[in-house]
Amino acid sequence: MSHIDLIPPENVAKAAALGLRLRQEHHRGGTQIGVARARDLSHRRRLSEDTIRRMASYFARHAVDRSAEGFGDKDAPSAGWIAWLLWGGDEGRAWCERKKAELERAAEGNRKRA
Predict the structure, then answer these.
(1) Phi-psi category of 7—alpha, beta or left, where left has phi over 0 and alpha has psi -120 to 50?
(2) Taking a C-beta distance cutoff of 8 angstroms, is the pair 48, 6 a contact?
(3) Which end of the chain is more exposed for a tag (fewer CB within 10 A), N or C?
């Protein structure tokens, strides 16, 4: 599906960069995988189809983190919010869901043509 643009948009890159900064400042939030994802997102590197699916899975599993104290608080951020930002934040969630749907539609079209 090389015709689908899998380069993260600027707003996703900014959210990931914020997550990296907050993680460094507060010494919490995310895993090494989340940090690696944030680096890719903040540098706007083209992601693989598998990575898009992993992002969607991350956001589905961690939506509950949004209700924690400190979620969205730049002064006293929860570890969950920092981790969420490392994966692109709300912007990343919306973007990867759109891209995942595009990939699924393209795959379905390819199956119908085969």
Answers:
(1) beta
(2) yes
(3) C
Q: Is-contact 70 76, C-beta < 8 A?
A: yes
3-state secondary structure of 92: helix
SS (H, E, C) 56-91: HHHHHHHHHHHHCCCCCCCCCCCHHHHHHHHCCHHH
Structure tokens at 20: 């990296």
- Provide φ and ψ at 31, rounded to 5°: -115, 175
Note the pTM of the prediction, 2 decimals: 0.92
Tokens of 109: 């079209």
